[in-house]
Amino acid sequence: MRSVHYGVFVNVFLFSACCSRFSNSDEVLLFLLMMEIDGDYSSEHGGRSVVGKFQRKRIRSAESLKLGFRALEDAELMLVASGGKRKSLCVDAWALNRFNDWRSFVGLDCTVSLEDLFESNVSYLVDLLSSFFLQVQRRDGSLYLGESLVGLLRGLGRLIRARLEERSVSSGIAVEEFFIMTDPRFKKAQLSCLTAVQRSVAAGVGRKRKTNECLTPLHVQSILAQSFMQLSTPCGCLMRLAFYVCHNFCVRGYVEMYNLMVSDFEIMYDHMGKFVRFHERSSKNHKVDLLHCQPVTCYFPDVVATFEAYFDHLPKWLAEDGSSCPLFLRGIDGELSNPSVRLA
Q1: Does residue 245 share a domain with residue 171?
Q2: Does residue 84 fall inside a structural domain?
Q3: Is residue 342 assigned to a domain?
Q4: Is the pLDDT of residue 331 over 60?
Q5: Were 296 and a residue from 78, 114, 250, 278 both cysteine, which residue would form a disulfide, CB within 3.0 to 4.6 Å?
Q6: What domain of life does the native source organism fall in (predicted)?
Q7: pTM summary value
Q8: Residue 317's domain spans which residues?
């Protein structure tokens, strides 16, 4: 009992002395910890710790801050050792699951990982991927979006690249960066993926495009009723054409308008009748490819009539050699009812 009272008295005395000597609580805890390390106090009083576990952590943080460094965290060390967190983990896991499901469907061994297949026999893996993209579809039997098919190929490529980067880190030997979309060894798989995308586009599967909703039908009729928008003159034909290109085919950027070619538009036929199809090459929103998007078509009779009038009055040299030219040409004075009047 006496030793306990004596220990409490010593604790109070030390704490009071430290408070009078040091300016803040972190310095007090640091002093008490140093006493424990030296064994001046803990050995005399049964090894009882003056500084608890939480206080020790505060002391280490205080020491780190004073030196301009922070304490290491195990979670961060593990994240760095694993190569960092990828934002595409969910997509990559989905792509791998679909590939493994297909291997099970065709009766192939799924115990060999995708990365091991790449390291052991690239040509065999390419053959598998080629057949996979020609067969893959949704679980309900419908076709995937074009961008989903491309996402499958990119996801599998990221998994392979992660293995190569892991090997490079462990060995210290730099390796050439791997991109499955451009690697010539995977040309066959790329073509199979492209074929699947084109099949989805032909079936009408695609991301719905935004439409211009700022103009009501009354506004459209009022604009088209203007004298300078009529098909009777070359300038009116070009103005009406420009309006339909913006309104019905959603060409929004002025640079995109400037780069339009005659060959980008075609009058076609199907079971629903005559229509205009826009073979879009690039746009303000889609810089690389547009195969994943729904084809832009328009069955509106006046749009078809406008493009027919435009095509009928193109320069003769364009009709003769079949070459392309910019869509927007300079109008020549005259009436379009005269077949000899052409755009230039």
Answers
A1: no
A2: no
A3: no
A4: no
A5: 278
A6: Eukaryota
A7: 0.48
A8: 217-321
